[in-house]
Model the fold of this input.
Amino acid sequence: MSGNGAGADRVLAPFGRRALEVVDNHRSDGYRLFSLRDEDGPIPSAGQFYMLAARARWAQRDERPFLPRAFSVADAVEEEPGLRLDFLVDDVGPGTARLAGLEPGEQVWVNGPLGRPFSTPRDLAPGAAGAILVGGGIGVAPLAILRRQLADRGVPTRILLGYRDREHSGGLDDLFACCEVRVATEDGHAGHKGYVTDLLAVLLEGDEAGSAAVYSCGPPPMLEAVRAMCEASGVACELAMESPMACGFGACFGCALPLAGGGYMRLCVDGPVVGGDQIETALVAGSGHR
Done:
């Protein structure tokens, strides 16, 4: 298995932050999906992220929110002029609440694309010809652009998405409407009642499991379950992880993550996509942005 996304093309961000215009913001079930117009930035690779801060009403007197928030890009579509960048957000705190409330015409300070993206299946394992995408909650976002970029390369994919309940779900119709998706919900309001890892277990028991690589993003307990299941099955996997970030380019060391062989990696520059064999556990303390 490759380390640090070694088989993937890393798109470099333009120097400095830039102000992008909000062109859309609408409800996507329990989440919000907002779009920015990027006339000068490059097309990001799946798994990369952006540091975002609203240009107006961001640093309030109580300094919440103050630092920018790291968000995986859910899609990047070429439109004239430039790109439309889509982001999925769940209103869980002052930073996400401000981004969820963005209105068309407002501007957002953006730095990105940043970080190392997902590798191709064959870069992860020579015999892997397809991909299994496993998303949980707001973590379904980077799997949407991954699915599209894999489809552009003709890579067959199977998509498994899990949600806690109806209130904490979204992005399905907006980001995955064009493809077949298996869904698991803990409250049973849609699809399989249970965990998305229940669906993954079925696929990993099949005869074709060894011909696929697993890609996952979601809450740390889910990522750890995916990592452990793939390790037990001998299936290559990559995880898009999250950790508190202040800068996004390796200066603050706020997102240091312990490695399986000792030492640390900075998730913002050495990740956020990591190989399942690089880490001992995906249960990272302090993950989640508000």
About this structure: The helical segments are 94-100, 121-124, 141-152, 172-175, 196-204, 220-233, 267-270. The chain has a mean pLDDT of 91. The chain has seven helices and 16 strands.
